[in-house]
TrEMBL record:
Species, as recorded: Trifolium subterraneum (Subterranean clover)
One GO location term (cellular component): apoplast
This protein's UniProt keywords: Apoplast, Disulfide bond, Glycoprotein, Manganese, Metal-binding, Secreted
Pfam families for this protein: Cupin_1 (PF00190)
Protein role: May play a role in plant defense. Probably has no oxalate oxidase activity even if the active site is conserved.
Listed name of the protein: Germin-like protein
Annotated residues for binding of Mn(2+): 47, 49, 54, 96
Length: 162
């Protein structure tokens, strides 16, 4: 049975999570799932799960995936191009992403090692915090002008809940 999940948002992706928040029966089981639907060129943006490792299985399509190792590992980027049936693991707490590099829709399932993995989308957290992070902090951290920071803070950051 084909399930059509809308992906007509700025990122071209939709994450449908099944954590303890959606299914109380997961309480104390240490697992959760997410289905990620991608339009062509859709992105599940850089994010991390503070309480869970993740294993991703591609059901349809072709995804470019990756994660960034920690500072002590020189922020090394690990990437792969995954096709239907391929699997990739994202370590706990590491910034990671998925991009549909195909011309058709893509679908993946993520298994997470926590009933409440949490998620922090990097762009939303840095440029869409409430209240906003001081431009002085961001100008110094990113080494760009105040106009760039103001532009980024004024963008609508789509919260993907992935």
């Amino acid at each position: 049975m084909q399930i059509d999940i809308p992906t007509s948002n700025p990122l071209g992706s939709t994450v449908t999570a099944v954590t303890v928040n959606e299914l109380l029966g997961l309480n104390t089981l240490g697992i959760s799932l997410a289905r990620i639907d991608f339009a062509p060129k859709g992105l599940n943006p850089p994010h991390f799960h503070p309480r869970a490792s993740e294993i991703l299985v591609v059901l349809e399509g072709t995804l470019y995936v990756g994660f960034v190792a920690s500072n002590q590992n020189n922020n090394r980027l690990f990437t792969a191009v995954l096709n239907k049936g391929d699997v990739f693991v994202f370590p706990i707490g590491q910034i990671h992403f998925q991009l549909n590099v195909g011309y058709d829709d893509a679908v993946a399932i993520a298994g997470l090692r926590s009933q409440n993995p949490g998620v922090t989308t990097i762009a939303n957290a840095v440029f869409g915090s409430n209240p906003p992070i001081s431009p002085e902090v961001l100008i110094k951290a990113f080494q760009v002008g105040g106009d760039v920071i103001k532009y980024l803070q004024n963008q609508f950051w789509y919260n993907n809940n992935s």
